[in-house]
Write a structure and sequence with these properties.
Shape of chain A: globular
Structural class of chain A: mainly alpha
CATH topology of one domain in chain B: Dipeptide-binding Protein, domain 3
Number of helices of chain A: 13
Helix content of chain A: over 70%
Distance between the termini of chain B: 55 Å
Distance between the termini of chain A: 9 Å
CATH class of one domain in chain B: Alpha Beta
Order of helices and strands of chain A: HHHHHHHHHHHHH
Helix content of chain B: 25-40%
CATH topology of one domain in chain A: MetI-like fold
Strand content of chain A: under 5%
Shape of chain B: globular
Number of strands of chain B: 18
CATH class of one domain in chain A: Mainly Alpha
Oligomer: heterodimer
CATH superfamily of one domain in chain B: Dipeptide-binding Protein, Domain 3
Structural class of chain B: alpha+beta
Chain lengths: 313, 510
Amino acid sequence: MTALALRRALQSVVVLLGVSVVVFALVHLVDGDPVRLALGTRFDQETYEALRERAGLDQPLVVQYLQWISSAVTGDLGVSFRSGEPVTALILERLPATLSLAGASILVALLIAVPLGTASALRPRSVVDAAGTVLSQIGISVPEFWMGIMLILLFAGTLGWFPAGGYVPLSEDPLQWARSLVLPAVTTGLVSGSVLTRFTRSSVLEALGAEHVRTARAKGLGARAVLNWHVLRNALLPLVTVTGVQLAYLLSGVVVVEIVFAWPGLGQLALQAVQARDYPVLQGAVLLFAFVFLLVNLVVDLLYSKLDPRISA
Amino acid sequence: MRRRTVLSSLAATPIVAAGCSTGDGVDTGDTGQGGGEGGGEFVAAISAQPDQFDPHKTTAYASFQVLENVYDTLVVPGAEDQVMQPSLATDWTTSEDGLTWTFTLRDDVTFHDGSTFDADDVVFSYDRIIDQQLSNAYRFATVTDVRAQDPRTVVITVSEPTPALLAQIGGFKGMAILPSGVDEASLTTQAVGTGPFRLESTSASEVSLSRFDDYWGEASTLDGMTFRFLTEPAAAMTALTSGQVQWTDNVPTQDVSDLAEDDQVELGQVASVDYWYLAMNHAKAPFDNRDVRRAIATAVDRSAVTEAARFDAARPNQTAIPEDSYWHHDYAPFSTDVDEAKRLLEGAGVTTPITMGLMVTSEYPETVTAAQVLASQLEPLGVQVEIQTEDFATWLDRQGRGDFDAFMLGWLGNIDPFDYYDGQHRTGGSNNFHGYSSPVTDDLLNRAAVATDREERKDLYDQAAEQIVDDVSYLYLYNPDVVQAWTPGLTGYTIRPDKAVNFEEVELPS
């Protein structure tokens, strides 16, 4: 178990280094000049040169990369072109909002997916199954921005139960934090939940058809015991993987939902960085997203070995 | 090894202001309004997050919405007529030759850090912009020296008469006065101003201000105020109608006529000082041909473009300066006529169809909408418009390289005619990206820039405007309205053509 963790962690570091090169190259190769953007249309050559030099953008790319990566390994991701603040501070400032939303969304998603997917699988082609299929299709197809706006109009506007947008830190006011979290979490949770419902249904179905389940039934175990001990545990494996992917996706920011609900998460930070060609923030954010993906995958793999002892070999 | 570098984003254009004619001395007026003991917290929803709070470095409108309430400049544009009024300077004079400006400063001003304001702070602030070549350095193009004659007097020397100087130093809070010796690195997140509110705290979702009790003007009756960033218009309007915020500028333009009837909100609408235009590349055939440009200008129906892009919230205009301004010139030589346009095109010896790439940007969605209407209007003329939608970074790159047939954009926050016309249309002007060059226009613009008599200056700019319109240097389209909404019963707020949002005198409904 420890050896597996160590091996995977080492692999992750190599992958991260590779990602850093690709990210740096992509960010710098894409069209658009941060200094020109900073000046807007009111352009002046002298000011332009001065700003470029101050940002270090007049250096060769290789030099810029080496400077960046050597600071990055010490935890210093540089300073935002746009705001003048350290990139790590900008990311840390937004991390609580992103963690809250991702966590709450996955909770909503699982609360929908596990019961609905299991019920659908237990009675294939029944009314429950049909309803589950239709609902999850709707959840996948409805655009998040539309769903978000509808929820705002109904629950913030007409009913006035929740705020129309904005984020309240947990440390400031737990009750308001929870209230501000409900609508965005339901919006993203519905989408993730729809995806997970389909997966739960198919993996439960598959597990139901497995031979050991038939054996368990044959030896006279009750339906509930079969479901809990022999079906769900096996169905959990693929579900954990997909949930992990969904969580990693949510952690790297859900731009559309963040904008609709004025949620100060990492997605908005990355989007603003793209628009302003704020290289340090963009590089830092993408590196973090890569790190999160690797970390979630690592955790999923380790969970796997817990769920299925054969894998730890 | 870490470089503290600040660029800033967005910024279509900063803001400039016009002034009274040189030689006038202006007495300070009492601008304060008697306030009750209302108190309370005021929340405004703005549509974007400020990038940073260093007034000399940011170019983002969202930052200036906050900074307007935190910092002061020597002079400020009047709320309605945009004529420069006293602020930190109580009055000013210019020498006979127009080369020396002398400003007298207020003697009762305290910075938010408790230090006292004097002439050294003005010199420090202006030198910072000039010496560090910050993005507003161009505003001091003619300034050769800024000097403190005594603690209450600042003397600015210019190389040629600069009637637009007041507009340049007072048009917006990008020319704010900082205390000399301030910790410059801290200014991105903190503010040391002289304005009615102090910057209390900032986060990724809101900015909080508190009342500054030692403000030199009438202290606000509010305890403080918050700017909340609500990007989605539906969310902003819901927040307003449900009482979570009391003011917003994030009003969907398509809802303006409905909102005017809605008694849950008070809608403010006023013609802005902005203008939107189409520019063709004068270095590229066939758009280098004046008759081709005139043919296109004749085929365009500005009202239809305006209607599509801005609904009820804009006015078509064939020149740059809106009707309400002193500098407006009533000149509209084009009337939409496709047959006449075809004749012009034939006369120019151009065989149709021709293709015109029209570069627009998703950063300003109204350009994308307008482009679709323009494309359909030019089709009967035999001009195939190929709409190229770019993100703003790429757009600016291409504009800078001259890599376009035509583009549409706006100039925002203009106050002095110098800002409406000079850099855009003078040969080699810093904003003349489309390559217009006319000796007649150059001569008029150069004379207007140094004309110290207001009437004479207006006359020269009127002539220049006619030449610019006739040559279709820019094909002017419309002036948009400023549209904002607030909670009924809110008092003390004035909606302004320059889009500065000043909450100094606001009182919440009781």
